Amino acid sequence: DAGVIQSPRHEVTEMGQEVTLRCKPISGHDYLFWYRQTMMRGLELLIYFNNNVPIDDSGMPEDRFSAKMPNASFSTLKIQPSEPRDSAVYFCASSLRLGGGYTFGSGTRLTVV
Amino acid sequence: GESVGLHLPTLSVQEGDNSIINCAYSNSASDYFIWYKQESGKGPQFIIDIRSNMDKRQGQRVTVLLNKTVKHLSLQIAATQPGDSAVYFCAESRDKVIFGPGTSLSVIP
Description:
The complex is a heterodimer. Chain A has no helices and eleven strands. Chain A is mainly beta. Chain A starts with a strand and ends with a strand. In chain B, about 0% of the residues lie in helices and about 50% in strands. Chain B is globular, with a radius of gyration of 13 Å. Chain B is mostly beta strands. In chain B, the strands form two sheets. In chain B, strands 1, 3, 4, 8, 9 and 10 form a six-stranded mixed beta sheet that branches. Chain B has a four-stranded antiparallel beta sheet with strand order 2-7-6-5, with no helix packed on it. The interface between A and B is medium-sized, with 25 and 28 residues.
């Protein structure tokens, strides 16, 4: 298995633009998580899905953030409009269960200028 | 990937020595604990885990100790190697996994 695959690896965009981050989880994993990592706040859970259904989005910072999982092999995290404070590394992880065993992707480094 | 923050605790260890990384967790109801390693430019990687009904678990060169009385977790790395240089996160779980702030380990050759 190729692991959790995220794209793009790096994204630089101008303030106000829409940004879409993509994730392909490990086949057979029922849970998918989106995390954001910054120097100031560390690793924050934004949202997670179970069997493609969003279960907990309490970590999503604002309405500008949205996430979808149209099928078991693909998820997107969208920011519209983007702001400089959204600059961070965004990680996707997948797991067979909620409580642990997470496998992380390599992350997308987002820079909003 | 920038996982090291300006305010991260830092531990410097001589190559070959043992390392001990400590972590305080917050939720007394947490029943599962995990240590992750994050190297530069990569996502966190599972190292070892322990359930709340245990107080010690050993892996290859790593040992995790759990003290539920004081809500403390530690990771011991034996014979630390340059490849161990990374940021180490403890994580606790009751349902979701919540990560701690991380400790940066630097191994001096």
